[in-house]
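Hi everyone,

Forwarding the result from last night's run.
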Amino acid sequence: MTLPRLDNRAARALFLDRHGLAEQPAGPAKGAHLLGLIERLGFVQLDSINTVARAHDMILYARRPTYRAGNLKRLYERDQALFEHWTHDAAVIPMAFYPHWHLRFQRDAALLRARWKNWRRDGFEKQFETVLQHIRDHGAVCSSDVGKDEKKGSGGWWDWHPSKTALEYLWRSGALAVVGREGFQKRYDLTERVIEAGLCPGALPCDAEATVEWLCNAALDRLGFATSGELAAFWDTVSPAEAKAWCAQAEARGVIEPVEIECVGGVLRKVFARPDVLEQAASAPPPPGRIRVLSPFDPALRDRNRAERLFGFHYRIEVFVPEPKRVYGYYVFPLLEGDRLVGRIDMKAHRDCGELRIRALWPERRMKWSKARAQRLEAELDRVRRFTGMEKVVFAPDWLREPK
């Protein structure tokens, strides 16, 4: 049987459209408009590294240049339109999705009890009631507010004291909710004080089958096309076996169908998509020609292997790689131009002197760094300068490097 096929250009167009990168970066970026963007993406990953701006702010700024960091903080902490939990990593998620996280709470509870005991975090379960009572009596807390007389182990930054471990467990299992951050330290409160009563764990039955159905559908709608494994990985709650079974059932119902997408180099890959995927791809707007700086944690790049298959862009973050062994740099930003990833740039905002310093840029192979492209980059860097509050952009003498 001949499967419907998306050539590489059409596949990239649909993928970028689903990730909010096909239209011109413009429009309002606060309140309901910002919430609508996050709902479209599904979630926004949180990350503490702040070489230029934090990942969540870069993700939203790349799509809405009027965005400022306070807009997300207000939406999350004041309006409580978002909640914080885990997908593949810590993220802010639309509050409307909260009922679909009850299954995640249950699964995290079982997973973390086993995992943390293996990591010798002994005693954290004995602190549950003490921590909960402290929050009942004193309100929202940070990890530094509990367990002050407990000793942290010697296993590194992750070796928390028992009360810190209890806080994280109670949050991940749904008894607590994160209500915001001080700096980048989470503040926890009782879930019933934060989440609408009808949405809290226990108020609604946890229907695993319905949750898997919602999560798989929602993942496919945000990816445009995917394998069952990619659907499972999107929210990281559904197991690969559950996603595979859902695909078989959804195909039998005619909700999805197998198609082929052309990857870089002409390699064909079988995936699942909606029956009208060809029409969806044909109607996707052509991505704008301007250059955009993307966060390494941008949703379009989160799955490094998929980005490499679709765009021929090999990217690995080197934060945890010893400096002598780094290929590019500590925290290097991909550059998107139209429907191509054209290079990567090593830069940092030096807030003490108001300079956005450009250390190096590596074009992709076979990518000529023309005068016009250089002008588009300069325009984007000036936008980033304004976004970060820097006074000027400063280029190192040898900033334009040869492709690697």
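Residues 151 and 161 are 6 Å apart (CA to CA).

Cheers,
N.
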